[in-house]
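Run folding on both entries below.
>entry_1
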Amino acid sequence: MNKSQKKPSYSLNCGGYLLNLDTPKIMGILNVTPDSFYDGGRFNATDTALQRVEKMLEDGADIIDVGGMSSRPGAPIIPVEDELKRVIPVIVEIKKYFPKTIISIDTLQSEVAREAILIGASIINDISAGTIDPKIFEVAAELNVPYILMHMQGKPKSMQDSPTYKNVCLDLIDFFQEKLNQLKKIGINDLIIDVGFGFGKTVEHNYQLLNDLNEFKILDKPMLVGVSRKSMIWKVLKTNPEQALNGTTVVHTLALLKGANILRVHDVKEAVECVKIIRSYELN
């Protein structure tokens, strides 16, 4: 972004608290799953999950994103009951010990979204943009919570089989315009877009999207970017997720310069430092 350009101003109503996005915010990932691609199985128990939340909050996380179903390539969609058993007790405990925490529920199932919001979450983060369970739109509208609309080609189980686009950037802009019009009609006011890095995209698609990220400003919505330790980074570096932190920081820097408003991350401290550096750069 040209340093002389003025950034649009956005804020989200999160359970009565106004989260201002003039400074990019950090969403810390809390996977209470046995099979996520990077940290699966590490935070399944409530006590270890709470320790993880405490550390992320100390490091500067603005939002804690709780997910009970892996969305790694090849992952199945699990029964609602199983997902609820994983996420609800954790959200209850987070609100008990860290009551001011803004929690997003990472789910594509409407019943899970509803139960999570009713017991303390205040944002819905849906990787399917309502394509798996359309009732999730109704939940977001009824409960009046911010909704993160992510693009995914196909389903997690098959999304990386053979992703194809005419033009990945233009195809996604068309997709978002259609969805945003649909959501506006049912009264969802706070909307965040997520291009879905790694969800039905090749490495080349991902970098095309990163390069063209500022084109999505035409939609006039805040943007969430989730690239943390993903294969678009470690495949280029010929390493693995465990060795992809430095590469992640590089991509975060590029995303912030292209207008990202929220970074969804595993490594909060490093992402917070990245935001501070970019802010200093842009203000001088």
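>entry_2
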Amino acid sequence: MANRLNQLLKQWRASKDTQKWVLATIIETDGSSYRKAGAMMMINDLGQYYGLLSGGCLESDIMLQARRCWDSGRNRIVEYDMREEEDLAWKLGIGCGGMVRILLQPVDNNNHYLQLDNLYGLLEDNQAVEYCQIIDEQLPQNSLTIANPEHQAISKPGMFSQVLKPAPHLAVFGGGVDARPVVAIALQLGWQITLVDPRTSYARDGHFDASVSLVRHAIDSLTQSPWLQQIDMAIIMTHNIKLDAQSLALVQSSSAKYVGMLGPTHRTDRVLELMPMTREQLVKPLANPVGLLLGGELPESIALSMLSEAHAFIEQQDGQSISGILTA
């Protein structure tokens, strides 16, 4: 399962002292590879791993290499090179055609858990962190410092550095039946979710995962809520014009970079009249009608469309076909 780092660390923390663990980090790639430098995976001595460094073809061998870290207590560097026919990568059947270099590090009390406890705490506190790993086969020496999310880490010879950011935070306004696939897919992406709906028959506990933060207060009373300055995206889908107007007004003072609202433009005109505000007066650009043109009428298809647009927006991508097949 390819999880975000905070999810990997959550899995690790639950049994960090009862099982042996190794942190595997891609520190260099050349040519085609499934994951890029910075990708991480947690491995334990029960044969379990969380995260992926390849399409599943490297993981079994990485597991074997990890055992040497537990025996020695030292780092280990392994390289898989599909450019060389004699390399192990060919025997493993890797088809990417590139090179992947991986740093394996034992995680235990003797090396301060590679600072992963502190890293998890900072990510959970919505802090960006620069994480540095010394690239050698000696005892691990990892360090971290709080960083600006826009900071670009620079790796030096013998050191791999990267800026690790909290998982994207999505606020969903409206807890109806069609919000369930939105939340479910967003959770699969590893996003943090805040679900807002003051109506007693909506946003029920049993309908959403326990990790979702449910907010049932009146929307116009939430202006000072701390989470409002932690969200990256907002999707408004209450199916109630008054509640949509309150939600759209609220997110204007939020940290959201992306705001999408379900419904046709003529309905949005009525929402804006209630605020009252014009489109030009909105502080946040409004995606409406919301979503990418993916087709499909089911709630799951609509959820995928909305989340795809939000994902592309925060990743600063254009949402176009990689192969160009859709324009051929």
